[in-house]
Amino acid sequence: MSAQYDQIGDKVANWDVLPVRSEYMEGYTLFKALGTVKGKSVLDVACGDGLYTRQFKERGATRVVGVDISEEMIRNARRQEEAQPLGLAYHVSDVADMPLLGAFDIVTAVYLLHYASSPEHMLRMCRNIHAQLKPGGSFVTYAFNPEFSAKGPNSTRYGITMLDFPEVPREGQTISAELHTKSPFTIHFSYWSRSTHEQALRAAGFHTLTWSRPECSPEGLTKYGHAFWRDYIDNPHAVALRCER
Ligand SMILES: C[S@@+](CC[C@H](N)C(=O)[O-])C[C@H]1O[C@@H](n2cnc3c(N)ncnc32)[C@H](O)[C@@H]1O
């Protein structure tokens, strides 16, 4: 499933323009869960073409490294680094197999854990992430919401729609989502419950797991209005999760 990003690399860049991906919703929620990155070292896993990797550096992080399984996504990230150098380093690797890259203050993963192919794969990812953190460091992830409901709103206006989402999803069930960019595309990933995530994270050594639902920034509320966001806030497709080492 993760190889799909080698095929859709350029379309993913378009995804960044959608309301749900904007700094008003996803970015706002992620950075709120993260706190300041100024003066901190950050490893951004499943970094894709480096959307957040670059932002961490621009917000004052010291050493910033990105890792992604897709050669195409890393090629795009490196192209942007060449065009506007920020001092970012990128590596191609499955997070479950990545080598030790250092001792970081923070590891981030925006849209990774639902690409685990099994609970064992998720555990290997979490162990590897844990190993890259300094004692007292934090792992902050933003990924598919295990509590997304087939009964809740699933509006196309945010830019992402779950396709045929089951009423009671099974562990490991394939979920598909359509992204309504200029050239729409469909992504596939696996359903893992909250407890599967928590078991893997705790077994890897993390404690104090804090889930947070997406929130809209004051600017996003002004720009789009409360009514626009209501359905998404009621049934968000993603959630943030912060874990301490
Ligand atoms: C939706 S993209 C998000 C990219 C980036 N975090 C962002 O928000 O722009 C998901 C990324 O996860 C990567 N990915 C999926 N499974 C992975 C794995 N096992 N190890 C590393 N990267 C993985 C994909 O190649 C893809 O680039």
Describe this entry's structure for a reader.
InterPro entries: Methyltransf_25 (IPR041698), SAM-dependent_MTases_sf (IPR029063). Keywords: Methyltransferase, Transferase. Residues 42-137 form the Methyltransferase domain. One of its GO terms (molecular function) is methyltransferase activity. Pfam families: Methyltransf_25 (PF13649). There is one protein chain. The chain is an alpha/beta fold. It has a single domain (4-147, 193-244), classed as Rossmann fold (3-Layer(aba) Sandwich), CATH 3.40.50. The protein contains eight helices and ten strands. Strand 7 and strand 8 form a beta hairpin. The relative contact order is 0.19. The model has no long low-confidence stretch (mean pLDDT 94). The site of S-adenosylmethionine has 19 residues, from helix 1 and helix 3.
